[in-house]
Amino acid sequence: LLLNKGEWEGKQLVSADWVKEMCSKQQTTQKLETYGYQTWQCDYPDVFRADGAFGQYIIVAPNEDMVIAITQANLSNGLPERHLVWKHLLKNVSDTSWVEGKAYNELKKAQKRFMLPTAQGAPNSSSDSPLLGKTLQLAKNNPLEWRFIHLEANGEKLMIKIVTQTHEEYTLEACHHQWNTVPIDAYPPYSIKAQDRFKGLSRNFTAASCYGWEGNDRLNVNILFTNWISGVKLTLISQNGEIVLWAKENTKKEATKIKIVKKTAQEHRARHRVEK
User: Fold this and answer.
1) N-term to C-term CA, the chain
2) Half-sphere exposure of 134 (CA within 13 A, CB side)
3) What global pTM score does this model have?
4) Residue of 179, 244, 182, 243 lying closest to 211 (CA atoms)
5) pLDDT band at 80 (very low <50, low <70, confident <90, very high)
6) d(CA 91, CA 93)
7) Pairing relationship of beta strands 169-176 and 205-213 according to DSSP bridges
8) How far apart, in whole angstroms, are the C-alpha atoms of residue 249 and residue 11?
């Protein structure tokens, strides 16, 4: 829409003059960046962009007739990614048709090997691990907005049942040294607590997970909500009869210790039925 100056499928939905004004310099920030109306002017000629939290970008390059979308979870200011776009993409755009060659085929092979790091640890713990078979109740003020979590071994998979503070339920099927993705009928954790942040969005999300045991009393679980920004690394530790849970969100620099209260599976189910 912005690339075509407010025109969409042959109809002028937004005034071309307004698009020009909103994408032009209206003020300069203290960091000497130029800002329009919800758009930023880039340090590449005639390119502007819209920024979202943690490195989401819509970059519009009219001279190249191109729109570039970037989704990520990044705690930096985004300059490295944008400069890669300037250096390796926009400077090499031309009207000449591109012929697939050896380099492109090598890139496709490499893409198939790309994978985020999996959770560290062994595939198995003894069946009597104090971390298994219990439903753990989390403190109400935890950043994940989960209420209960239950861990159960099922062959080579680790079944992770999660109940949110709004009573949504889903079960992850984590694998060892391999990401396993399942659909979930729930909203993922999100560190930005804006009101109505999920308004208008259906609960059509997917979550990938993996796990690794470090001894019998320490479990690492990585969870990535694959069509959303959020990801979290969980570390559960059994110490002196108590269970400690650490959560490292991908949008935070430090891990958070979450207070939990042990509950039996029977107590959890009964209580959840009453609350529902």
Assistant:
1) 45
2) 18
3) 0.82
4) 179
5) confident
6) 6
7) parallel
8) 43
